[in-house]
């Protein structure tokens, strides 16, 4: 279990055990945003990262200059928005994290971001497929349920798709589940592990409390806890809306993204028994139209080592999974039918421009 409290002490201890021969370049696309900046800082503190490449359409070099003064060994480089800079940011990367895109505003679901973020992620995925085809790709931009299948289609079209290396980052859901259940039980979140399966949006997020330390949580307490885990992101969106500029979870998300990247680095550097949930290409519910599904994943040097089944669930959780599969299948289908390039048009004043043409992605 990786918690906020243990993160820095663990990283500090590991500083002595990381071999000088291991070099790991990590690239963040969208590094100057609300998530990108704290994520850059957390990765600068990670001794497994030797090169940190920070790219954004605005502000990448500024964030890099700032973060580069932190006195850890890694080299930090910022990149301006130009095709050759994007290429340089990506080349040689072992891990590429993508938090580029727009965040939610109050009243929006993650799916409402599709129009704008689908094309941003698609274009960045094309560059990643060209310049870092072997990197592990961590998609943070929402709606993850759709941006991950879009990325898979781009990689397939380029002939470089390896499902073991594509991850939708759902780590924040298990981080929240662990914290929220500990608040109810009065326990230390460090000892609370809750498996969360499904996708990363509202009812597609399914916490399996029956597999937690507290399987007897029931009734109204259980219903409220499940709802809080599913819609925890809304608490942050609402709270931030009063500040004017708004936005969604950034600091807790940066923590979760940094944990996921660290887990992949540990696994690629030979550590065994590294588990994380993630939204990956999965056989578990393929028959239900869900070719992508989040469950407990064992990580290895190649990325996904083993996808664990959902395991024993109770009737209530069976019902939650059924509801999740319905939404998830629609989210994945929508992604499959998003063509390139999009026709831009103002379609939603809350998020600006961008619209999907609704044709299958062409294989070029
Ligand atoms: N997976 C999760 O659990 C999770 C949690 C919270 C937020 N998110 C999502 O993460 C995304 C980013 O959120 P944020 O709060 O950091 O938003 P933000 O607006 O603060 O930052 C986004 C950054 O992306 C940059 N950007 C936009 N288009 C780009 C492009 N084509 N290339 C490079 N950079 C580009 C912007 O300049 C900006 O700096 C949103 O889609 C949000 O919904 C995901």
TrEMBL record:
It comes from the Eukaryota. The active site is at 200 (proton acceptor). NAD(+) binds at residues 30-36, 56, 117, 140-142, 253. It is an enzyme of class 1 (oxidoreductase). Keywords: NAD, Oxidoreductase, Tricarboxylic acid cycle. GO terms for biological process: malate metabolic process; tricarboxylic acid cycle. Signal peptide: none annotated. CDD domains: MDH_glyoxysomal_mitochondrial. Residues 170-336 form the Lactate/malate dehydrogenase C-terminal domain. GO terms for molecular function: L-malate dehydrogenase (NAD+) activity. The keyword Transmembrane does not apply. Residues 25-168 form the Lactate/malate dehydrogenase N-terminal domain. Its EC number is 1.1.1.37. It catalyses: (S)-malate + NAD(+) = oxaloacetate + NADH + H(+). Substrate binds at residues 104, 110, 142, 176. GO terms for cellular component: mitochondrion. Pfam families: Ldh_1_C (PF02866), Ldh_1_N (PF00056). Homodimer. NCBIfam families: MDH_euk_gproteo. PANTHER family: MALATE AND LACTATE DEHYDROGENASE (PTHR11540), MALATE DEHYDROGENASE, MITOCHONDRIAL (PTHR11540:SF73). Belongs to the LDH/MDH superfamily. MDH type 1 family. This is Malate dehydrogenase. The lineage of its organism: Eukaryota, Fungi, Dikarya, Ascomycota, Pezizomycotina.
